Amino acid sequence: MPLLTHAFNSTAIADATYDTDTQVMQVTFTSGKTYTHEMVPEAEWDRFCTASSAGSYYGSNIRGRY
Fold first, then answer.
1. What does the alpha-carbon distance between residue 54 and residue 10 come to, in Å, rounded to a whole number?
2. What is the number of structural domains in the chain?
3. What SS3 state is found at 26?
4. DSSP assignment of 8-54, as one string?
5. End-to-end Cα, the chain, rounded Å
6. Going by C-beta distance under 8 Å and a sequence separation of 6 or more, which residues neighbour residue 62?
7. What DSSP character marks residue 32?
8. Whole-prediction pTM value?
9. 24-45, pLDDT tens digit by residue?
10. How many Å apart are CA 54 and CA 35, to the nearest integer?
């Protein structure tokens, strides 16, 4: 099961992991809170990791959708 990780240079998001087999993404905020999102397509993970603002992208495209 490939587990992808990404560290962010963000004031809101510290890092995130994504399991390509289960499509489970975990996002850890700079506050220390971690949120788990299920059924996240890999393409969504890719867009999240390359967004110009990870926090804005998360709020607009991931939170509340997965």
1. 7
2. 1
3. strand
4. ---SSEEEEEEETTTTEEEEEETTS-EEEE-S--HHHHHHHHH-S-H
5. 20
6. 25, 27, 37, 40, 44, 48
7. S
8. 0.90
9. 999 999 999 999 999 999 999 9
10. 14
